Amino acid sequence: MKIAIVCYPTFGGSGVVATELGLELARRGHEIHFITYSQPVRLALLNPNVHYHEVIVPEYPLFHFQPYELALSSKLVDMVKLYKIELLHVHYAIPHAYAGYMAKQMLKDEGIDIPMVTTLHGTDITLVGNHPFYKPAVTFSINKSDYVTSVSQSLKDDTLKLFNIKNEIQVIPNFIELNKIQMDATIPCPRSVMANEDERIITHISNFRKVKRIPDVIKIFYKIQKEIPAKLMMVGDGPEKEKAEKMCRKFGIQDKVIFFGNSNEIDRILCLTDLFLLPSETESFGLAALEAMACGVPVISSNSGGLPEVNFDGVSGYLSDVGEVNEMAKNALKILKDDNVLNEFKRNALHVAENFDIKNILPLYEDLYLKAINKYR
After folding, report:
1. Which of 36, 203, 276, 352 is 20 to 30 Å from 224 at the Cα level?
2. Who wins on pLDDT, 335 or 141?
3. How many CA atoms lie within 13 A of 96 on its CB side?
4. Which segments within 27-95 are labelled E, that is strand?
5. CA 100, 102, 104, 106: dihedral to nearest 10 degrees?
6. Residue 228 CA to its chain's centroid (Å)
7. Model pTM?
8. Cβ atoms of 33 and 85 closer than 8 Å
9. CA proximity to 325, closest of 223, 226, 220
10. DSSP string covering 234-294, please?
């Protein structure tokens, strides 16, 4: 199959999932065309089946905001015609599904019918999409997609609750590449680089937005380190990072917290980690938690959104209500204080993560693609 993938090329979960999906499809022999405004951060162009096409938005004084959707839809039309692409897979309802629909209509005028699959990731629905300014466009884009998927049952339920959706929504969860993670695990992982032998290593990875509740991460760690020797690794960047750094200085724990910024070495960081913290206000899925579990790292998280579909309470970690910092810290210490308990949770976390291996998830997308393409034949 010849498939165009439209996504955000950033460190966010949707961009990572779209990129990894495309790369695995390419390894299986499909021809994949990534179409976005810059090269996705995890995209390797060493496979002859992988192509990247940059969407260039010309700057005109006439426009206060440059019309990316217009440039994207035009680029999609050109690439479909040039490479005979058979299917569009767009990640995020807006602006990508909206631009995809416009491309479909332009192509239809030239006698080319092409299906579009839209994958909903979360922010496009719960945060941006539900805004009154965007809600009609989001509803329209979802209903005009040929097929729609969501990354969790929770997100599907939210979408049906917030919008007047007539389309069927299929849940296809996010995934991880266990083979790649296990290959990386064979590389020596010296803990002494980050912590003393008696210290537990705790990690948080995110885009440092308010929804991630970064202050809760610092508060949980502060309580943990009062009970046991520990270090906190904060990976990512965003608007809440400066506040987090100030909190660490206020609590006097700045020498126990390392801020990495954005990193392409997530697996290397997680291989050092004993416990992962994700106390988010909400997560449509919780990809960061899954990536941690795939490295054998148990998770302390909130119980909102799709997190209970990924992190199994008392098995791969613990779930708590949003903002229950004291309970999260107590649960963390239950895991961290005893080596035997920690090792059991590590084994359980990996076992749960195996359900989300890309080899189990990718066939669901392939079946959907074939169904969509055959619908237009």
Report:
1. 352
2. 335
3. 29
4. 31-36, 50-54, 87-91
5. -140
6. 32
7. 0.88
8. yes
9. 220
10. EEB-STTHHHHHHHHHHHT-GGGEEEEES-S-HHHHHTT-SEEEE--S--SS-HHHHHHHH
Residue 184 has pLDDT above 70, yes or no: no
Least confident of 89-98, 183-192, 195-204, 344-353: 183-192
Backbone torsions φ then ψ of 134, nearest 5 degrees: -105, -15
Architecture per CATH, domain 178-356, reads as 3-Layer(aba) Sandwich (3.40)
CA distance 268 to 159: 35
Domain with CATH 3.40.50.2000 in the chain: 2-175+357-375, 178-356
CATH of 2-175+357-375, one of 3.30.2130.10, 3.40.50.720, 3.40.50.1970, 3.40.50.2000: 3.40.50.2000
Question: What does the alpha-carbon distance between residue 301 and residue 4 come to, in Å, rounded to a whole number?
Answer: 35
Q: Of 299, 323, 297, nearest to 309 (Cα)?
A: 299
* Dist. CA 281–CA 240, nearest whole Å: 14
Hey, what amino acid is at 267? Answer: D
Residue found under tokens 């020498």:
255
